[in-house]
Amino acid sequence: MNRKSHPAASPRLPEPGSEWNVRDAKAQLSKVVSGALERPQRIARRDGAAVVVMSESAYCALLDRAQGEVDMVDYFRAHAIAGPALQRRARRPARPAAKLR
């Protein structure tokens, strides 16, 4: 597994085996999935864009916490996921709910 260093990354490094490049993740998908059952796995492209793979139970827990306004950036930082794609953006006001006819 190749691990790129990210200049904007948090000082806390991901745990071994939780960060992948796309080529290695494709070749070892079963390992990525197995790892995601224990902790989130970060998969990064060469251009720095990245995705996070996590277990369904972790995702559901994240959704449940989101109703209590949990910040996803803080959640991923707490779970050793860091990188340039996890920079906090300014919050926009919520859009009003659409009216049903």
Can you walk through the features of this model?
The protein has helices at 22-27, 29-36, 56-66, 72-78, and strands at residues 19-21, 41-44, 50-53. A hairpin with a 5-residue loop joins strand 2 (41-44) and strand 3. With 101 residues, the chain is α+β, with helices and mostly antiparallel strands. Helix content is 32%, strand content 11%. It has a domain at 19-78: YefM-like fold. The longest helix has 11 residues, at 56-66.
Short description:
This protein is an alpha+beta fold and 101 residues long. Helices cover 32% and strands 11% of the residues.
Keywords:
single chain, 101 residues, alpha+beta, YefM-like fold, 3 strands, 11% strand
Shape, per Cα inertia axes: elongated
Whole-angstrom Rg: 16 Å
How much strand content do the residues show?
Answer: 5-15%
Residue windows where pLDDT falls under 50 for at least 5 positions? 1-13
How would you characterize the largest beta sheet?
A: 3 strands, mixed
Task: Summarize the helices and strands and which ones pair or pack.
Layout: E1 19-21, H1 22-27, H2 29-36, E2 41-44, E3 50-53, H3 56-66, H4 72-78
Parallel strand pairs: 1-2
Antiparallel strand pairs: 2-3
